[in-house]
Amino acid sequence: MNRRALRRLVSNAMVGLMVVAVVVALLPLFFILLDLVVRGAGSLSADFFTKMPAPAGESGGGVAHAIVGTLIIVGTASLIGLPIGIAAGIYCAEYPGSRLTWVTRFVADVMNGTPSIVVGVFAWAWIVATQKHFSALAGSAALAMLMIPMVLRTTEEMIKLVPNSLREAALALGYPRWRTSLAVVVRTTLPGIVTGSLLAVARIAGETAPLLFTALGSQYMSLDINQPMAALPLTVFTYATGPYEEWHRYAWAAALVLILVVFVLSLGARLAIGRRFTLNG
Amino acid sequence: MSATVRPKTSFVTTPRATLAPRPPAVSPSERGTPAVDIRGFSFAYGDRQVLRNLEFSIERTAVTAIIGPSGCGKSTFLRSINRLNDLIPGTRHQGDILVEGRSVYAPGTDLVALRQRVGMVFQRPNPFPKSVFDNVAYGPRLNRLVSRRDLPDLVERCLRQAALWDEVKDRLEEPATGLSGGQQQRLCIARTLGNQPELLLMDEPCSALDPIATQRVEELIFELKRDYTIVIVTHNMQQAARVSDFTGFFDRGELVEFDDTERIFTSPAHERTEAYITGRFG
User: Fold this and answer.
1) Does a structural domain hold residue A278?
2) Complex ipTM, two decimals?
């Protein structure tokens, strides 16, 4: 076999291996989605989205309270977590030499590796135990704590990609340092920061452990963030571990809804950002 | 165009063959106060001394080229004039630089005002990822140089001055990153002009451009020197010979020689200068 044929063979073999790896990586995702649709889609109906749960033992009803609850809890968590995370990320990227940056980055990395249930326990000890009642706010605080390090690191990585020449261009035009950071660096990386934020929102929307002993869950519609509140992951957990056949079907449907919420969130963000200006090298 | 590919020896005898004859050069001291006055200026990054006791002045509405081997401190010198080196931690300086009679390093110097007066063009074109119009309008908007109503006029004037208007007048709202490299560099020059600077610093403005784009930028430099004082750092000695009126030769952080470009390239006073321009080192 001559060398060119050998080279082509090796090249094709490598590409083939990579395709196999991609397929292996995608298969579980595909089966999860397929399973959810097969088992959950049948239970989806207008009632499922708009009705409250039926009393135990009766059939019918929906999970409207959990959908609303998830939106409120995740929304509140984002309001707390995103601004702090993004601002801290900007600081770390723009002042890489400072001691505070070193500490922040270290803490963020540790936090990123912390199991979410630990954060839940923490929120329980600090908020639930001191207030002496469960609340959606405590759940949001726990989720925000999970978001901050994630958003911080993605924001920082995005900003680090901004070529230094762009920063210098703005400074040389007479932009003060802070305005250079905001007007040029952050504006340039905005799509990346938004994407990172939405990924974080999507990640925490599915978190169950930190909500177990903070937001607790509820069978009723609640709009008061100082009270226990239902959330989709909690509903999935309760229904899946419950004794009734119908609950099990509802758990599948709720899981499907949860996935769809995350899916719509990601897709909407991508469309909203659109492709405007890209970084120049 | 042809000059860029001509062998090195020929430009020494005909330094400015491609451009129109210039007015007879006069030494800086004969024309009143200099645009930039460098007074015993030294600069170091930590322990590494980069500039040593520079002492010379730069003529107004003329092009001054700074040449020298890599690492001789050319760029550091240029970035000392608008204090862009401030970003790097652990730098030290001695002496001072005066731009139009005003100190750059005096305590309390307004960096924003300084950088508005001293424009800079970089080695690689670095337009903001915004529209062509916004790129030029950036500086004037920040420094409130003109009212919102007059902004389009100013942008047009700057783009015309940068010899770019005809190429971009129909695509002012398109992203600047879609322009060619040479167009981007002229846009960066226009962006700097938008600030209405007194002084233009150019840090190897053509090193990332092809020969035709280089020629256009060089012609532009020649046009601009009627209104602006220009300091250009260049690796390309033919370019220094073509565009500049005065040339300073730096080596190891010292100013070896500063004189009329003509004299530097025909009868340099120092042996090191001659060795460098004839290509024996550097």
Assistant:
1) no
2) 0.77
